[in-house]
Amino acid sequence: MTERRTRRQLPPLPALRAFEAAARHLSFKAAAEELAVTPTAVSHHVRQLEDALALRLFVRRPRRVALTPEGRVLYPVLRDGFDAFEEAIARLRGQRLKPVVTLSATVAFTARWLVPRVAAFHAANPGLDLRLHASDEPVDLISGTADAAVRYGRAVPAGLVGDLLFEDMFAPVCSPALGLHHPDELAEHTLIHFEWRRPHRDNPVWERWLAEAGLSGLVPRAELTLSDESQAVQALVAGQGVALAGLVLVADEIAAGRLVVPFGPRLRGYDYRLLYPAEPPHPERIAALRSWIRQEAAGGLGLPGRT
């Protein structure tokens, strides 16, 4: 007679599901949408799990959350477990699940550059699904939170390979309806700023640009500061002012004529790189991802020449 298995001592399944979804999205709101519950319910389940384990699993910050070291240990175990459940259920239903490659990137780059190009990935890789993970916090690619990431900077972290996609440039950008033609005209308009996640003296900001243009004493009509670059782009398209914007993120709007670069000079920004482990667990998925994103990047940004 087979020995009966000892009863498992596990936290409630809703708490485990809520934590796994919140950890995968790094967002209680996105997890709530996936699970068809409220963000408050997700927060309650996560707190229930933290109380059961007597551990903190998330660092809660305004508008986003991040995993603690304990959360990073638990997340891949639950993720793999739920993936195994999904695959087994699909087999029982006679379905065949496609493998998935997960790409992490900043919220702005995901929304403005990756999402419009997803159809090209699916067309080139009919046997592989793409999952986009949008977060301004770097993910741990070694632990498997994502297969690869597009990150903005100049250094490649140890243990990772970094393929250069773009060398970003910053220049004044605005709606063509403003009719700007000369830097002196900036005094008649609103200068739009956005907050850099990591303040640094090399960040291309208006103060640096005005000094480069010989306009350090310029006083604009008004100034507007937004929390991220995506909001700044929306304000630009709406004709709310002029921003010193990264040309990678506004390339599609410039190509479509919704935005223009009326004049220079341009400031060097940082680099967009595709990062992935030197020895990835699924090299064929990384190869498909690299081929797609490098081809998209090689298509150019459709921007006017440097000024």
UniProtKB/TrEMBL annotation:
<protein>
    <submittedName>
        <fullName>LysR family transcriptional regulator</fullName>
    </submittedName>
</protein>
<dbReference type="InterPro" id="IPR005119">
    <property type="entry name" value="LysR_subst-bd"/>
</dbReference>
<dbReference type="GO" id="GO:0006351">
    <property type="term" value="P:DNA-templated transcription"/>
</dbReference>
<keyword id="KW-0804">Transcription</keyword>
<dbReference type="Pfam" id="PF03466">
    <property type="entry name" value="LysR_substrate"/>
</dbReference>
<dbReference type="InterPro" id="IPR036388">
    <property type="entry name" value="WH-like_DNA-bd_sf"/>
</dbReference>
<keyword id="KW-0805">Transcription regulation</keyword>
<dbReference type="Pfam" id="PF00126">
    <property type="entry name" value="HTH_1"/>
</dbReference>
<feature type="domain" description="HTH lysR-type">
    <location>
        <begin position="11"/>
        <end position="68"/>
    </location>
</feature>
<comment type="similarity">
    <text>Belongs to the LysR transcriptional regulatory family.</text>
</comment>
<dbReference type="GO" id="GO:0003700">
    <property type="term" value="F:DNA-binding transcription factor activity"/>
</dbReference>
<dbReference type="InterPro" id="IPR036390">
    <property type="entry name" value="WH_DNA-bd_sf"/>
</dbReference>
<dbReference type="InterPro" id="IPR000847">
    <property type="entry name" value="LysR_HTH_N"/>
</dbReference>
<dbReference type="InterPro" id="IPR058163">
    <property type="entry name" value="LysR-type_TF_proteobact-type"/>
</dbReference>
<keyword id="KW-0238">DNA-binding</keyword>
<dbReference type="GO" id="GO:0043565">
    <property type="term" value="F:sequence-specific DNA binding"/>
</dbReference>
